[in-house]
Design goal:
The protein has 17 helices and 15 strands. By secondary structure, it is an alpha/beta fold. α12 links the parallel β8 and β9. Bound molecules: pyridoxal-5'-phosphate (PLP).
Amino acid sequence: DAHKKVDTKAIQALDAKHYMHAFTDTKSLGQVGARVIVKGQGIYIWDSEGKRLLDGMSGLWCMNVGYGRTTIADAVHAQMQELPYYNSFFQTTNVPAVQLAAKLVEISPAHFNHVFFAGSGSEGNDTNLRLIRRYWDLKGAKERNIIISRENAYHGSTIAGASLGGMSGMHDQQIGVTIPNIVHIGQPYYVEGGKGKTPEEFGLVAAGWLEQKILEVGAERVAAFIAEPVQGAGGVIIPPSTYWPEIQRICDKYGILLVADEVICGFGRLGTWFGSDYFGIKPDLITFAKGVTSGYIPMGGVLVGDRVADVLIEHGGDFNHGFTYSGHPVAAAAALENIRIIQEEKLIEKVHNETGPYLAKKFGELNDHPLVSIAETCGFVAGLNLVKKKGPTLHECEAFDSSLEVGMICRGHMFGNGMIMRAVGDRMIIAPPLVTTVEQIDEMVGLIRFCLDATL
Ligand code: PLP
């Protein structure tokens, strides 16, 4: 009954008057009024009108253990009473942050033994930039200062995050403030670039763009390659199986650092602790955020692999970087309880063995829909491409006139029918909470099909 306490119109009016929303046209939002979300439980949220919505996006890809976890609230409450805050700058530490660092080392690939804490994924990637530059500096290779990223990547919204990211919208608005020496290569998006090739052939071609770029700018100039194991905000771009092994080979060949931005893929999203485990890659740095606390409290950071940590710790002296909230004890307490839940409820094993394969099957059935050119999943992320008219092959379909059309059609129907799904270009995507059951997958895919039918 949380909605009964809320005066929707009054909140919307205040919202329109004072609140500049992230990634939003505040003026047009003010005209329609923001939907006021008042409660969450499991995989559902409720708005102030009492309408229930199935949250197929886990908030913003973060609500891994689902809403309404009272044990996380309890852990946070207890920690706030004991020690709500202390910094980690001046030779002090705190118990939850230390325990969390040890826990993260335990669940991450074997060559990770150090953690740098930050407040978000963006700050994690700012930290990466510093770590990368410092590493090459200490190695006596200052000239290695070019970072290669990918078009359509999302690495955050700070200047470093947005510069590393490859979304044209964010770069266009940032003329003059993007960081130099960050270059981008194409994304491994089979729908877009794979015409006339098998996915496996295309995966090698797309990985080859990394080597081409390295040779173009000069191998001795390249510091690192950064990428999301599965590109998330860019539209759940699932790379062909050949892509990551070839990327790893190229990074190894030229000695460049590999950074896996696991802000979405980390903490079970692909049915493994990290996307790096899923694809069998060995990054030097891993960015994390979101799923580390399931979004209950902000936290992010970087897992620092031995190659970088050894140099920085042995030879670096002071590392002049950090945030007020690095290693925040309350966030760490939330993360520890969140990870305990993931382990106790075997959520990752479930996604890997049971619900992930079930989602693949059910979501895959949408491939028969006349508006869908491809429906594909990887663990608990999924994307489908909408087309105006199906063709004989994936690459011979008739696209909608504009991606806006896709967004409008689908978003309208989805929200109206109680389903949260996101539109990115021609693609509709989901990333449900890891606690979603097979029955709820039926409900979710049923809702998606219903909404697609309604748009025909
Ligand atoms: N990296 C990736 C892969 C992300 O998906 C995001 C957020 O969506 C970020 C970084 C930025 O994280 P934050 O919004 O916590 O700064």
